[in-house]
Amino acid sequence: MLLLPCSALALLLLTCLALEPPPRRPSPSNPAFRRFQRGFLLGYLPALAADWLQGPLLFRLLQSRGFLRSQIAALYSCGFASNVAFGLVSGVFVDRLGRKKSCLLSSGLCSVSCLLQLSRDFLALAAGRLLAALGTSLLFCAFEAWYVHEHLERHDFPAEWIPGTFSRVALWNSGLAVAAGLLAEVVAEGLALGPVAPFLLAVPLLALSAIFAAKNWDENYGKSRPCCKACGEGLRGLLSEPRALLLGLVQALVESILLVFAFLWTPVLDPHGIPLGIAFSGFTAASAAGSALFRRGVTGRLRLQPLRLLFTSVLLLALSLLLLALPLSAPGDFLAVLLLQLSCGLYFPAMAFLRRRLERSGDAAAAARWLRLPLGLAVALVLPALPADPAGTRAVLGAAALAALVALGAAGGVLGTGRGDEGLRVGEEGLLEGDPGE
User: CA nearest 66: which of 140, 111, 13, 120?
Assistant: First the structure.
């Protein structure tokens, strides 16, 4: 089963290269900006690489500790529950504590989590999952907030240069994700160091990120807002804007489905003997191909609109889950998972674009967090009770497909209500400065 994932990975990487549009503008040549951008990347990219290294073999690591499927599910649930609960207040927390301190805290929490994977004690591993979830929430909140503030406020660089930096981050992040899967497979299986090896390899990367940021970055803070006020604003936005409500429902359902899938993909593929690290690299390459399709679709000749691409992505998600609910062969299961990841590559930039545009009339991000909280906590509570046999796993994937169809209906509602809104469309000039996906 080595040929299938390797061939798929190579084909997907070639597809990404073919689809990626040429740069729309030259990079700024300002030496001060170049130094600033390089300093941000040197602090951020090692942390992203460390995060990717922890993904491919977590289930196998917990399995090697002798835990039952229900116990492994409970450990995953610790991470899921803390992630969705902390997501409501993470932005306020980072603004108050300080963005630089939050970046350092993220690296510290993730490092302790990785070291706790050496333990065979259930409570220690549960603490590791909780710390990893908190650290990851800070990772995807604090670093970018720090950069935007420094770019605009301290250095006074033009705002139109920001998308260029995040385009570089996205490109590097895709490459790091593919490399992390391959490296995890090499150190765990090729060098026979076991599934804990990628977690230990992540620790020096996290230390490198923290040391560089501590020595070279300045501190900055956001607006001080009470947590209850920030949450209340999000709830009011949810209730006052129907499109924000529908879009938040789509996001909450899709991301709750992806929580379930994050637990189930290993039990689906491992019995076929597919190398998990290489499969993980294939997943990330499929997601990168989906993102490249989004960029080419909205900026190319077709001028596809993000509303339609969001609907298409949720449709592909539902189709892939329906296929996974069937007793397929190894190639069938693997290709269905690749289709699911391709749909995610389309979904995330489309959702980010639409959410950004809806923020002018309501906080769509906060709406999604409020809807994601009960769904995410429900997933965390139900996950340990899911059946462990193959037939039960397929039944759960079938239920996830039904949830995806509900999300598809909500996406159709957004498409119908936003059809005449020019603010939710990409104009003739393509993606505007700062729009996701550029």
Answer: 120
- The two tokens of residue 180 are 């992390």
| Residues 6 or more apart whose Cβ sits within 8 Å of residue 435 | 163, 353, 356, 426
CA dihedral 254, 256, 257, 259 (to 10 degrees): 130
Residue 267 token pair: 């039990």
Q: Identify whether the C-beta of residue 411 lies closer than 8 Å to the C-beta of residue 311.
A: yes
Give residue-wise pLDDT tens across range 319-341.
999 999 998 899 999 999 999 99
pLDDT at 21: 59
At 437 the pLDDT is 46
Rg (C-alpha) for the chain, rounded Å, is 21
Q: How far apart (Å, rounded) are the C-alpha atoms in residues 180 and 368?
A: 30
Q: How many CB atoms lie within 10 A of CB 24?
A: 12
CA distance 288 to 281: 11
CB neighbours of 240 closer than 8 A, spacing ≥ 6? 362
Query: What gap in Å lies between CA 411 and CA 394, rounded to an integer?
Result: 25
> pLDDT above 70 covers what percent of the chain?
87
Residue 202 reports pLDDT greater than 90 = yes
Residue 169 to residue 140: CA distance in whole angstroms? 12
Mean pLDDT, residues 49-64: 96
Q: What would the two tokens of residue 380 be? A: 């965390």
Distance CA 417, CA 244 (A): 11
List all residues 6 or more positions away from 9 whose beta carbon is below 8 Å from its beta carbon.
178, 278, 281, 282, 285
**Which residue matches tokens 């970018």?**
144
The residue among 372, 396, 395 whose CA lies nearest residue 80 is 372
Q: Is the pLDDT of residue 122 over 90?
A: yes
Q: How far apart are CA 231 and CA 370, in angstroms?
A: 8
Whether 437 contacts 353, CB under 8 Å? yes
Phi, psi of 200, deg, nearest 5: -70, -35
* Coil, helix or strand at residue 4: helix
Q: CA distances (Å), 373 to each of 331, 352, 355, in order?
A: 35, 19, 18
Report the half-sphere exposure of 253 (CA within 13 A, side-chain side). 22
Q: Quickly tell me which residue has 């599910």 as its tokens.
A: 73
Could you tell me if 275 and 5 are in contact, meaning their C-beta atoms sit under 8 angstroms apart? yes
DSSP 383-414: GGGS--SHHHHHHHHHHHHHHHHHHHHHHHHH
Q: List, in order, residues 6 or more apart from 14 with CB less than 8 Å away.
A: none
d(CA 129, CA 113): 7
Query: Within 10 Å of residue 50's Cβ, how many Cβ atoms?
Result: 28
